[in-house]
Amino acid sequence: MKVSVHLSFNGTCDEAFATYTRVLNGTLVYSMRYRDSPQASQVPPDWQDKVYHATIEVGGITILGGDHLPKEQPQGFSLVVHPATPDDARRVFDALAEGGVVQMPLDETFWSAAFGVLVDRFGVPWTINCEAAPAPAAG
User: Fold this and answer.
1) Architecture of domain 1-73
2) Order of strands, sheet of 27-33, starting from the edge strand that comes earlier in the sequence
3) What is the pTM of this model?
4) pLDDT tens digit string along 82-119?
5) For the segment 27-63, what is each residue's pLDDT rounded down to a tens digit?
6) CATH number of the domain at 76-139, please?
7) Going along 27-82, which residue ranges are E strands?
8) 129 touches 82 (CB < 8 A)
9) Are 130 and 81 in contact (CB under 8 A)?
10) Which of 14, 35, 68, 89 lies at a CB distance of 3.0 to 4.6 Å from 83, suitable for a disulfide?
């Protein structure tokens, strides 16, 4: 199981990740703007070009990040766990959530078969993001 870190920004993710990529000889692996995300209609027009989600690889380490509206700004970081199966995601999520606070229940999203966010009983923020593809829509 892989663990990575997620950094939260207030509109400067593009600049920060460009700097980290250049200074640390990293590689931008993925980037999505709010305008291209399912949340496009939920952010103001001046936020459409901000980073919804980005991933860089630096020396075998994965750094995830994105811009968050000030009212949604987390405390700067989150540990991200990438379980290989939804069952493993459930096991990890439930264990970390015990005695903690669930911020987003574990559920399927457009990018993940099992995604959830919580703060454990020690105050550490966690994101669970199953690497398995979501099940195809019935139809």
Assistant:
1) Roll (3.10)
2) 27-33, 51-58, 61-67, 2-9, 77-82, 125-129, 115-119, 101-107
3) 0.67
4) 888 999 999 999 998 999 999 999 999 888 999 999 98
5) 999 999 999 998 899 899 999 999 999 999 988 889 8
6) 3.30.720.110
7) 27-33, 51-58, 61-67, 77-82
8) yes
9) no
10) 89
